[in-house]
Amino acid sequence: MQDILKYGLSLSPSPASNKFEYIDGWQKIFNAFIMSSYFPWVCLILIINGRNWKKPVILILIGNWFFRGIGDILMASMDVRPHEPNTYWPFSRINWYVGYTFAHVFWFLGEIIGDWYPLMRTKIVTNNKKKMIWVYITCIFYNFTKVLAMFCGFINFPINLKVTDEKAVTTDDINEYNIAWWSIIALMHFASCLYDLSIIITLNSSLPKSITKIDNYRKIGFLEKFKKISEFRIIFSMLASLIFLPFVTTFVIFLILDFRSENSKYIQKSDAEIEQLRIAVLNFNYALMYMDQILLRYYMGRSKKGSSSGRSMGSTTLGASMGSTIGRSIGSIMERSLGRSMKSTLDRYNSEYISYNSKFNNSTETLFKESQSQQYISDKNSIMTYYYSENSNNDYYSQKSLSYSIDDKPILQNSNINISYSSIPRSSDIFFSINNENKKDSSFYLYNLKNNKY
């Protein structure tokens, strides 16, 4: 509606319309930072992060909003300057360089700062330094295209915005600028796709694991996947750029053909529609950054609550009966494996290797290999219980009873340290202990194996 009113005022020759436009221009200047579409996201991020707002990732998001806000101020300043007759938009050279070209400089500075957010997120979740090199290369190339776009407005300096010159000859400066500008925009979105693709390839090894960690991944809906999986949001950012790329490429081809055609050379092709589409894709991609940070913060908060429940049960219930060392160890297990069970949300499981080395007689070093990757079960009503057994027998034995069996499968256990699981349905797991046959060193190893194989 605001654009419709502005268009109507621009057609009105009355002085009142210029007065209202002048007042609106100053209002836009003073409210530029608040009127930014990223301002609510920045406020929300500052609220949920509190004193941690100085982290590099948060500063990137703030910097993106701040520099783009400066660009909005320069753009709004065009409404407070007089228009020159017989000129193309923005109707004067001062508006062109101050309100348009330098505005794009600050807009692109904000974008360049924001472009490093996916790189930093990728660097956190992967240790593959070789693949990270390609992420850096594509990111720098993407930023370089935006540096080119910054100086695109200085083509044909000083630019001639006259529709016709003194000899009534149509000027070509705007048409030449449009070809250069939209060619760089097409290159920019191509670089954006390469950048996003390099991130996806780098995360290729960790992405399937991240997805399978989500409980019932195939059963949850699209919105749940979008909320829980950060890599899922990066894919959508790349898809947005891929969808826009054919449109801008086609538009550039038509611009070049029209420029070479004598019949249409005198008609300036409107780029308002393609510009609106570009801005929509741009805002979508950068809004995903803020959404990603907010969702990550939200699920980290949930994870910490679940972890605190695991630590509480491990340190109090077990510490009293098995000693502080065993209590802390089991608390660590519950934090990593069943940290969310107390909140009835078993969302994620990692491949775990858990060991205890409790020395009862002559202590010797126990050597072991890391277990294979496992797929953990999850159940919202799972309860894990532990207790210490003082059975004098020091041999392996299998005890099959109601309280020690899981779906009628026996539990192999060491008598010195007895671990019991209850109320875990649909389990195909076997728990066993090893390295106790000498009656010297009592060690307990907990493996979660698939298909009863070890």
Produce a short descriptive summary:
The protein has two domains: 2-304, Rhopdopsin 7-helix transmembrane proteins; 351-446, no CATH class. Helix content is 57%, strand content 6%.
Which structural class do you get from the secondary structure elements?
Answer: mainly alpha
CATH domain fold name of the largest domain: Rhopdopsin 7-helix transmembrane proteins
What portion of the residues fall into strands of 2 or more residues? 5-15%
CATH level 1 name of the largest domain = Mainly Alpha
Task: Please estimate the helix content.
Answer: 55-70%
Q: How many strands?
A: 6
Task: Please give the alpha-carbon distance between the first and last residues.
Answer: 68 Å
The largest sheet is:
2 strands, antiparallel
Radius of gyration (CA) equals: 32 Å
| Spans where pLDDT lies below 50 across 5 or more residues | 11-16, 307-454
> How many distinct domains?
2
Overall body shape: globular
Number of helices in the DSSP assignment: 13
The largest sheet has its strands arranged as 1-6
> Averaged pLDDT, please?
65
CATH architecture of the largest domain: Up-down Bundle
Order of helices and strands: HHHHHHHHHHHHHEEEEEE
